[in-house]
Amino acid sequence: MKKIAFRSLLLSFAVIIISCNKEDNSNDPDTNDSADIPTVYEGWTLQWNDEFNEAQINTNNWNYELGDGRDYGLPIGWGNDEKQIYTSNSENSSIIEDEGASVLAITALEDNSGGYTSAKLTTQNLFSMRFGRIEIKAKMPKGQGLWSAIWLLGDNKDQIDWPGCGEIDILEVLGNEPSKQYSTIHFTDDENKHGEIQRSSIKSPDFSSSYHVFTLDWTPESITFNVDGNSLNTILIEDDMKEFLRSYFLILNVAVGGYWPGEPDETTVFPQTMYTDYIRVYAKNGFQAPDAPVLNIEEETVGQLIEQSIADHAIQDGFTDLGTLEAVVYGPGAPEVVSSDTAIDGDASLVFNFPGENWGGGYLQLDTSKDISAFTALKFSLNKPDSLVNCEIKLESVASDAVVYLADYTGTELSDGFVEYTIPLADFSGLNNTELTIPFSIWNPEDSNGAFVKATVLIDNIYFSM
Question: Fewer CB near the terminus (10 Å): N or C of the chain?
Fold first, then answer.
């Protein structure tokens, strides 16, 4: 996660050490029927596989991640502003027959209230890989606002925030461009910034109309992506990419909405399903993997480690109803957090330095939820550049969140460049005011053209009024 205020929870994972030879070619996808015996390459061992031939999803292979992300330490929407709720219901994930084969179906649905459900399956604590070859035969959904993926995430994600844990996206397909498949890696680079290397391929007919074989070949030196036996991209593992020398678990999911695909619209037809015929992981016989590098939290965390006390600089002096807070940032466009002695209340304000060019935000998080139902309005003061025309102001509770847009409100000019805003809590439609967890957040500053803008924002004198 790119939530900079990280947890220090150590989990023990089973690590299966495997490797690959990127010169070996993937087998012909037209012969890869899931009913056949899985291919075993000369000099390789089939280490782990799921052919999805059983009547039900094999719980020895797969876990479910459930809900909207908050149970996993993320903002509502899994950190990407996604709109689906993940469930373990059979209508969202099951073994079915498709094109004469038994396959795993992950299905995104629209419910009667206009919300969405889907499924997210992982092998966390059940199976991990470190180097090797993984082959996947799959067919993807299509439609505006759909975001399907089969990917790997670092086993140490509970020790270090993303992307310091590392991420390998074997394939991602946006439903509004179903002919295009993305393969990407995410990591923390040597400047403590979010490193990303991405390549895409285009198929005709598109990835939703037929099955294709996606292959990852991973060695201590490189990561190679293949589609139907054709090399898409080879990424050399550099010195600042230690994330890719550690173990990873598998994830399959279909998301709805979010910063990348956008929201569903009137053209989107539900249900939409990602079909997976098989997943096969191969180990190179006789290969001895090098020792995994020791995790260096400071070196491999994006941005900075934020002092907890700095959050208090944004709160009105003497307003103690919120209790203990911490400042948290998230997203590839997450701001740097500092303090300033330019303030409208007290001696200091909280500063978010947004880098622009990408989505991201910063927020204040309570250590325990608070009941603010006796209050009627959120008040805060901002010192921002004129180039910042709009941004999201979001509040979150245990069961809900709500967003308003700064451009919809006219502030009162104060001294030192600050402008005070008053937003009625009634405007945060659907928010549960009895269990507030995030009393203030600011996301995605934009210019007059709606583009992400680089901006230094001073935040001060936050409080709730009667």
Answer: C
